[in-house]
Amino acid sequence: MARFYEITETFIKFGFVTVSITNSILILLTVFHIKRIIGTYKKMIITVALMGIMFSAIELIARPFVHNYNKGWMFFSLNTWLGASQLFLQISLAVYASFYLSMISFISVQFLFRYFTLTNPKIAKKFGGTGIIVWIIYPIVSGSFYGGPLFLFGMPDEYADEYFRKEILESYGLSIKDVPRFSIIAYGADGSLRPGAYFIITGALVMIIQYTIIIYCGVRMHLVMSRKFKNSSVPNKKLQKQFFRALVTQTIAPTILFVFPAAYVLLSPLLNIEMNFQTGWIYAALSLFPPIDSIALMCMVSEYRNVLKEQCKYLCCWTTERTVEQNHELRSST
User: Fold this and answer.
1) Rounded to an integer, what distance in angstroms lies between the CA atom of residue 266 and that of residue 204?
2) Which terminus, N or C, of the chain has the lesser number of Cβ atoms within 10 Å?
3) Residue 168 backbone class (left: φ over 0; alpha: ψ -120 to 50; beta: rest)
4) Membrane-spanning regions, if any (predicted)?
5) In the chain, how many H helices and how many E strands?
6) Spatial distance between the Cα atoms of 302 and 239, rounded to a whole number of angstroms
7) What is the pLDDT of residues 254-300, one digit of tens each?
8) Nearest Cα to 118, choosing from 224, 258, 266, 275?
9) 2-32 confidence digits (pLDDT tens)
């Protein structure tokens, strides 16, 4: 019977295939068929879709997994097919972690843009032109404040290796020295703070900043739309509401799938919470986030739905015509 951490590889592969298909469809529709989404927001949608594909590709390489043991956790790679060095896989793990936070940061950028589009179009225009550089760099910098501290405060030492050695051997049949890993232990044996505590605090602060932006802009957008759209004919108000619902859905999905469960795992060493189980299922669930993100947008925005229906009808008609032609050719040959 397959062990859980072995089954997660199937989830990761499924996530990669799914996001490659869904995000490619989203990009093609946005570039060639969608007419009402233009300018900066169009570029944002394409950028997020490309990030989703890259994120899943990095996940396939990094094969991330987490194991919580007592008052600490180990973030490590289960990649065995690549034959790469430990340093390469450690870098892959850090890039993977950074990428996730970058994607959350990008959602906060989208909320800011949609908020200013409704409340202050002059500021919204600054997101275009050279402003593109800013909203691309911001998520990268935010992500680096997660991946960087992981290298700075999470590198394994003798204390951490001894702490996790027996558990990793018994649970995974692996010698800890052979595993590409980061070890997060908040407190030493004497109760003093260890570097892992600083990583937890840094990661929590960066995540709080993103959700503060998302919640503030989300609440303000809802109030503005309720006030402006109630008794007036605002251009594209239906589309604006669809964008808002899509953004909310795109935020809720990763929050439920990953952020809430991960927050408990992330903070448990700092809060002195003891546990002993495989928490890597969180990353298995996270592999489904990018395709859900794209599907939410295509379902919520009516223009995407209409174009998809048209394309499906065209494909069905073309398939039917081809079948009729082939049957006719077969009859003619006989």
Assistant:
1) 8
2) N
3) alpha
4) 12-32, 44-67, 87-115, 127-146, 197-223, 243-267, 279-301
5) 12, 4
6) 8
7) 787 778 887 888 888 888 888 888 888 777 777 778 888 888 889 88
8) 224
9) 466 677 788 888 889 999 999 999 999 999 9
